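Predict structure. Input: GroES-like protein, 452 residues.
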Amino acid sequence: MSNTQTLVAASPPLTQTALLLHAPRTRYALTDAHPVPALRRRDEVLVRVTHVGLNPIDWKSADFGFGLPALPAVNGRDLAGVVVALHPDAPDAPLPSASASASASASASRSTEDGARTFRVGDRVFGPSTQYRDARTSAFQSYAVTQAHCLARVPAGLAPAAACAVGVGAVTAMLALGSSLGVPLGEGGFSTRGVAVGAEGEEPAWGRREQPGSVFDKIGSVFSNIFSTPRPSKPKAGEWLLIWGASAVTGFFAAQFALLAGMRVIAVVDAQRHGERLRSIGIQHIIDRAVPADAIAEVRALTRGKLRYAIDCVGQATAQHAIDALDTAPATQTHIVGLTGLPREAPANVELCVVPIKTFHTNPRVGAGLTRILEDLLARGKLVLPPVEVLDGGLGAINDALDRLRRGEVGGGRLVVRLEAESGAGAETTADIPVVRLEADTAAQTAENSSA
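Output follows.
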């Protein structure tokens, strides 16, 4: 499957179909007269949305009334589609070379050291929207505007629906490791801390301790402006990393990026349900979650009480379990990233960390660095994707799909809604995506809040 369509650029329509939230605690309403968003900056591109990936934040923000800067609101955090328009002042993109390797054509040739990325009309792309205050970037519409450094090209051979399941989960995982814990990312060892410029969402000192408070409690760490990272040295190759809830999509990605960085990963999950899948990506140490005290004791025995790093994907209670598994020596600084909640208090040697998700769009070098890594790993088949269930019916199918997320009927995978059937060279076929029906897994579904 080609990652670029051959087409003639045409002006987009003035109006489009979109899914609007008119008030909290109501269902999304379909309209066919919503304005197509305009390109305002030279680094923005207009994407015709072909697939939407659903995240718990899509129903939680509607039900609880957060992350809604204006009403009616356009929501949606993950999309895949086709570039249909560029800003008139956009830099020219290099033509892909027939002799170039998939890795080279999908990464280095399309970005520069300052974070600028270039695309052409017809490029197949995917990416998360971390700019919930800018409705132009939201996924629940036929056309969306995205900053170029927040987009990745869909590698040849990968179905757009599969790519659509990557964005929020993978980017959250990379920032949790790279920014919150200082882990080098990708095979080149990219450092998100190393390119910090004090952009919105960044802490230039990289050392302010996070105090969980109103912003964190209301909208979750993933879309928080506030984050904290430790002062001590970066994790070393061979260092232990505990992921409590690694069956969740974000935990699943975090485990793979940590393994690529040379860390030893311990996964606490429903071992019978998820053990085989997690072993398939290289996790050697899988501990059953059924009795938390036993799981903590097993982690401490395995690490000889020397665990310094943990990520929790489930909630405050399990974050406390992960803290209890960390090294208790007062002189040893330890760190935990809470994706869905953290205890208000922790031992003095425990650094409470959340994820600086906004740096993905506020710092072009961070966004471009992460999208380059994703393109490269996907093109070379080095990143295993979560199970994906593809739903037809366009934007009108989203309300019912979100109900399934509300009821906890989806665990360990992603729901992706197909907005349109593509045709022509590179079109997605039924063979591109295996038929999957995701089933309930209450703990895994709770963990999916990490993708909110």
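Confidence is low (pLDDT under 50) at residues 4-8, 96-112, 206-232, 442-452.
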